[in-house]
Write a structure and sequence with these properties.
Four copies of one chain form a homotetramer.
Chain A (H helix, E strand, L loop, with lengths): L5 E2 L7 E5 L13 E2 L23 E3 L3 E2 L6 E7 L5 E2 L7 E6 L7 H15 L4 E5 L14 E2 L2 H4 L19 H10 L4 E6 L1 H16 L5 E6 L15 H21 L4 E7 L6 H10 L4 E3 L13 H12 L1 E7 L4 H4 L16 H15 L7 E3 L12 H19 L5 E6 L2 E6 H7 L9 H10 L21
Parallel strand pairs in A: 2-6, 8-9, 8-11, 11-12, 12-17, 13-15, 13-16, 14-15
Antiparallel strand pairs in A: 3-7, 4-6, 6-18, 9-10, 17-18
Helix pairs in contact in A: 1-10, 4-11, 5-6, 6-12
């Protein structure tokens, strides 16, 4: 009865289409030095990297196959050290900038980009730009010299050594800085908008004949950049959210009768943190995300669901993403200083609705509301994210040294790849697939009513990051 | 200059070969009930799973492609809920057993296997076998009734509710128990040896016409089961090891002059924990694993390397896997009560050698030795492992309900798959590829001399879990 | 030059006045069994306690002396095992009740009261009353049987096994319960109001000739019960607050320019948590408490102070007690369901004022506001509090077994004492002495302007808990 | 029945004897500047300390009273700011040195000594001596300039910025350094031996007419300095030990049958850490300390006790202080490089004995041994210890500014006092009182046989730190 393999010939593929990444070799003569410059401090002898990759090494974006799957295969360029360098290390000057909100792992990326450049490639200099793009030209924000001493141990600290600040993007002034300091590599750590800025810089460099590689490293605590298995900092934030959920469980079980704990988590447009925190905890009874409508009462209502849970267990725990419930509360027209629209106060709203609903049933209930806010994003990266940051940072440097530009690095199907920035900004922010496994798991764990409209499974569903 | 795709036609594939998983439908008539029994406590209405999988849904094992890659593709069966059940839920009785040493996440797997069976499928009963295989017949080890109440919150505790104990495997008595209690599902959580036992039970059931699905869930804190991206508990142990490394850094920096901190970590035959802990820390200067020979002195010597590091930074930190250095110290013929061979005391050995070497150079040095031992394995699973345990547990239940047997579940290329047990036991324990990216990264971070013999890159290298 | 002692004869004291604690021996005949009943499970042989205390063993409340100190000395009765028992252990039935909000250590007190009674004294039974005083008669709240198994490991969990709930106190129904279940000891864990209730029960028992000892164990996370060195749970909450302060430091340093982090901590009428958290952190630049008025602008203004700090360091961190600023915002007439008056939103107020003030100076500033709320009180007790809870619980039992009633236990000058409840409720809630060492230390660390009006040192200052 | 006070006139005291602390005013003319120099950065206006203390402000060492207590009272000088300064701040140069093993809080003491001197008193300079006393003259150990920037945030890091190293004490060279750098204050942080060294320096300064104040701050993780309520770092180490004990509980409960977990903790000659960790955990069944003999078998044997516990609960947890069992294993004549005698390996010995004993009874048992070693001492100070360090550091500075010398600071009866060094070195190391409350509590919690010989309670028992 046991066979090891059966041939599934109808899944044969005709062609693989690889998303190409621009390379400066096409516009500027490369130095073509051999990539053996990993000078080992210990022995002084040069040491080759284990495996050097070519321009056609790729990984399949879609490795799931089965009846009815398309035959056309997309692939992404593998990241890793290349045999020939575009830039001579001794002339390599890098600038690093972090933009937008804090995210666990920022310092780790800064540490490893610097370490790989200085220690492994022997680059000339690494400059840390303070306070986002504005730091290129804001007189109050003096750039930092990033040396090995300056980044020693940095990876284990929360926040970012470089700070971040609101908005600002003056292309000409940025290019002026790059030219003035003879920058050859620009590493930009940030989200969607930041990547669009990085792409503009990359194109402007090409147009103005500046031999500068621009590399992106996607930073989004919400895990909402498309294609990626996970963005750095995400697992740390899910871990950090557990503290709040544990407290919610304690409060709910101890506040008699009918104790309910509510935890608000980050997630403006996608509920990944809320959903993953729910799965990681296993003690949540209701998880509200932007991707599934909130229904308060009736058959699919979350309030009767909570009432049933409380009647059964004596208490209940709710996790709500900050962006959930817009369909209920209405989107605000206001925006904050960074241009993000102000979110309705869904946490407090739910707290009031629950109290009101229980009162209507003649039952006491004083829900406890917990908003861990910055306590989820300002912690140091956990071990998994440290490793991810290291992988991304090393590979960004490998790629830039080889002349790639206008790319971002990411983990896709468990391998680090180079992705053209234009590809990744086209489809972000990614949302939780309401017909995918993750949402299904939330329902199966919480048993909450599924408010996503029934839809027969057909056609290609959105790509889920991991399942 | 920017193009999105280029056709790489020489990577076209002819055929996909899928490793088949035995199914009880071939030997016993299935009940063929529709898998819509996820009775929602809240509403009472049945709810279909989002996506039901067929017998040919698979994922490619090797999704890396490029010049010179083989055209023959191996694939693994995707895990997930199936449209038809083999077992009627009301007649489903499951037994769960955990074998071998502790590993973070054991209680989480127990929690989610039980929850999925009772809460999502409405199974009749779940029995927890205490103390490993012996618990099936040892009169002192009364089985536990696993109810929803019994497993509530269990997932957040270290250890295993079921305990584990040394050896023991009496096939006949195990089958007797299964028959006596009308068990239809057996979930076996353990390592290599345990999986071989599970496979024997599965085959014996088929031979004796017992309609029982046997599912394995691979448990190895060392991450040394082949094919898998990572085994549950591994990232938690890497995280837990950080505490010891941090302390080693503090001791090393504070014990003047020439402070050195040494941390011993788990890893009998493979150095994954040591290597990943080194990458996650970023503060380690020497990482010793079983896969790379230890050279004490000379050009490639680790002692002169430490001397250089100490001269440069003032201190150094060493991580050593318990199984490293066998080529130096010799393998012991002795074994412990579980049949594992006794390991030479590499940690104490290195401590003595370092002290001796520095003394020979006329330098003071009193290395501080830290053995966190069980503090790495007895902690609760972190958030990432919680989610992994949930994914594995749910999918083991889905597969068993559909009649699959003699399989194990694992995360491969970021998707959960079903793997025939025989396939996974054939190639384990997996070792760190000394010519792979992970080892390369250790060298690039620590700058320690690479003692792995130079080998030109050719042929297929061993599969690395993640990079 | 070195002398060891000098006689300070003018400090000689005439008399010591000890605050007496009522004892049931005066109203009911004691059993007078010898207190040797600590049956050691191991050996079966009775074992005397190390030191048995008499009715005149006391500690001085004021052990500070010097010129001008009063000669009349107050003393408190020492807690500890006594030679003779009032209650025969076999007839001892205890009830435990926890009231009011959560506080770290509640479960620890429950654990140790139960353990001391059952394991050390061999008491007949311990009953856990659920949900506060209401649990004595609320049909929905079934009492728990507290056995050794039930409390095993309980001490390491946050919250309270018994739950708590709002208000309710029906003296007659409580006495009815006590009589019906033949309760001889009542342990009441709670704050001021709860202690007043306990005192009423104690007096009613005496009046109605019920031979029942009523013991209080003061619970106040705010550390605002007078006389005590510290109340249990307080150091844990100060510790827990550090997480929020660390995050505030990270946010402040990383949000350029002029980053400011604000942390709101508990403390309705006294600022002990805020003050101690400030001292424990050493990274706070402004600490606002109810005991010192908030001045916004001008010479003593906290806003110009923050501006100076930010100009100097680049960032600032603010800690504010929830009850601070009433003089600024006005007290609300509203109360919540527990009868506590609603506090003005001082945290959000300060956030707005800071933003406004910086804007007025033409400076950017977006203060980050963190309210860890329940994350400070729902955590398990730390080691220090565990030991304190054990000391209080054991001594409450020792005293009740010896017949003392209407008392509470507390740590005073580093020794556990018995205090008549009436004495402790008379002077609570205690406030931070604005002319004491603690507030002086806040000023010396933060360098914030001292808004407390200047007052020449004279007369007896309020008693500070610790310095 | 309720009375508040009764006069206990037979406790009246005749005299108070205060242990005097040497003051440099007697040998050198003081500057007698008013202590109003706390220049508030914010406002520039001088601000008096809240309460200035005189030379006769003291606290009673023994505040316990009762029948038969001695009438002669010892007192200690209170610590705090004094009205007049001995040293002009602008001429104050301080040196700080840390000696001996690491202890949580060292960096906190360094931070607060520096901050109080520079920020509150406006001292000229603070010099950090590296590597213990040897750092005064070892050419390899360059002193650190301690500025406010250098110590910012330092308090939250484990270890010591200054490092420590083995032995070395050259009085003449130390004095040479002090003179050369015009040092006026020397702060010495260390244990017994270090304090004896500090005392020698203080006396030599007086003899050689050097106007230098020498202040000790007692550092002993073992809490074995006499008189003190607790030494800094002690509660942190007890807290840190909980991680190891938790793991031991998990291992013991999960390793069937007869699981036993053993944790070795620090404590060469006194068992305070082991005893307090046992009390803080509440899950320990056997606690072995140097102060109570280890009896293996028989009526008082710990092995039969463990057998009974395991038979009852299924598992057992053992905590053993590293210095326990010398009477069993014999003291070693060997010493390590620091001159400490080598301890017998009591942990491994107990592990072997337990296994052997169970085997003799025909029972399986594989005890798990955990030695957290440096993981208990290299962690950052917890909140309680942070505050203690701040109190000690500030008061050491206050006292030195007022001219006191040859003293140490400590918390006694919950107040900080100044103690002549000679007094504290005379009676240390302190041991756990085997007839005191702490040991009694260990017995009452673990129910282990009390191996301390019975002794009727009489006479004055040794002073316990806290109960």
């Amino acid at each position: 009865m046991i066979r090891h393999c059966s041939i599934i010939d109808r899944y044969a593929f005709d062609k693989v289409y690889m998303c190409e990444v621009p390379n400066l070799n096409e516009a500027f003569p490369p130095c073509n030095m051999r990539n053996d410059c990993m000078t080992q401090q210990s022995t002084g002898e040069p040491s080759l990297w284990n495996r050097l990759l070519g321009p056609r090494d790729c990984i399949l974006l879609e490795h799931v196959c089965g009846p009815g799957k398309a035959r056309k295969l997309k692939a992404l360029l593998r990241a890793g050290p290349r045999p020939l360098l575009h830039f001579p290390p001794k002339e390599t000057v890098a600038a690093i900038v972090t933009c937008g909100g804090l995210c666990p792992g920022l310092n780790s990326v800064i540490h490893y980009v610097t370490e790989t450049l200085l220690q492994n490639y022997g680059a000339r200099r690494v400059i840390g730009i303070k306070g986002g793009f504005g730091g290129f030209y804001d007189a109050d924000l003096e750039p930092l010299e990033l040396t090995m001493d300056a980044v020693n141990g940095l990876q284990n600290q929360g926040g970012t050594l470089l700070g971040s600040s609101r908005g600002g993007f003056d292309l000409d002034k940025i290019l002026l800085f790059l030219q003035k300091h003879e920058v050859t590599h620009l590493y930009v750590i940030g989200g969607d908008g930041t990547h669009r800025g990085a792409d503009k810089i990359a194109h402007a460099c090409l147009e103005r004949k500046l031999n500068i590689a621009v590399a992106g490293i996607p930073k989004t605590i919400d895990n909402d950049v498309d294609l990626l298995d996970r963005s750095f900092g995400f697992t740390t934030s899910v871990e950090a959210a557990q503290n709040a959920i544990k407290v919610a469980v304690t409060e709910a079980t101890c506040n008699l009768p009918n104790g309910i704990g509510i935890v608000k988590l980050m997630g403006r447009s996608s509920g990944f943190i809320a959903a993953y925190a729910t799965m990681a905890s296993g003690e949540v009874d209701l998880c509200l995300v932007p991707e599934a409508p909130i229904v308060l009462e009736g058959d699919k209502g979350c309030l009767p669901h909570l009432e049933r849970v409380v009647a059964d267990k004596g208490y209940a725990v709710v996790v709500v993403a900050e962006g959930a419930g817009e369909e209920l509360l209405g989107a605000s027209a206001e925006t904050d200083a960074s241009g993000n629209k102000k979110l309705p106060k869904i946490g407090e709203f739910m707290q009031a609705k629950i109290e009101e609903y229980f009162a209507k049933q003649g039952k006491q209930c004083s829900p406890k509301y917990i908003d861990p806010s910055y306590m989820v994003r300002s912690v140091p990266a956990n071990a998994s994210d440290q490793i991810l940051c290291m992988q991304l940072a090393q590979n960004a440097v490998h790629a830039a040294m080889a002349g790639y530009t206008s790319f971002t690095v990411g983990m896709v199907n468990n391998k680090v790849v180079l992705i053209p920035i234009s590809l990744i900004t086209a489809t972000s922010p990614r949302k939780l697939d309401p017909y995918g496994r993750t949402w299904e798991r939330i329902i199966s764990i919480t048993l909450q009513p599924n408010t996503v409209p029934f839809r027969p499974v057909k056609g290609a569903a959105p790509r889920e990051p991991e399942h």
